[in-house]
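Form P-L/3: holo structure prediction, ligand zinc ion.
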Amino acid sequence: MKTLKLALISAALFASTGAFAQLKVTDWAAKTGPLFPHSGIVESETEIGLVDAQQSKAEALRLVADLLEKGKTLKWVYVTHPHLDHFAGADIVKQYFPEAKFYAPKGANAEMAYQVKTRRLPLGQGTLGGANNLPELAPTDFIEAPKKLELGGEAVEILYGIGDHPDSSVVWVPSAKTVIAGDVIFNKTHAFFGDHNNVPAWIELVERIQKLKPEVVVAGHSKTLNPSGALVGQQLAWLKDLNAAMKVNDSWQYVKAEMVKKYPDYANDFIFEFSYGVRKPKMK
Ligand SMILES: [Zn+2]
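OUTPUT (holo model):
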């Protein structure tokens, strides 16, 4: 009887601390710029879920090395949106973890092929080691992701919407109160906005994230490791200022001048000219 009582008490304690279900999330940052993309590593006791797979061969290999040293099964890889700096390293991850399932939002395979064709070399110019350090091919067989993925018996949720790409998403890990934000939330970094014309919809997705009250936010791009919940408010302010500047004068020169004035310590101020340069007419 005494033993049973103790067992019940310890079960209740475990349930209240979430010790059985708690997933751990690590903010994994690229070591090299100029983009400094981040990945999120979600871990249960025996399994790993990886969110975003880096751009260059070197960063993907560094990421693989860290995953290998965990000694766990890589169950799935999820790419938050079809931009090179988040999916290009996926084939390298696949070489070392062929059993993992690779997921991405709907329509991602065709968009990835387009991105490889049009942006691989321009982006490669800013990458340490140049084009030789960029994977040559787009992965072509991502599985369309469901709304929830599973790890260690716990559901990990995906919120779809618009970020720096019109088919963006973030990953919400409830037990860790953590959002892995892909390119919906950046940290002290000017965000790319050349793939759509709908900044208000981007604001709306960040407001949906805010309602979850995340304590930890893994930003898609950051020069530092600072996965704070405060990044949500920081991104909302930046987006509202961007939207306002674009309404006053829709040119890269004006928008850049306004945003750099307001956010002088942010990285990647080249992104304003680049975003306007690749914008297509009549975007959604
Ligand atoms: Zn990115």
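COMMENT: Residues 37, 83, 85-86, 183, 220-221 surround zinc ion (CB under 6 Å).
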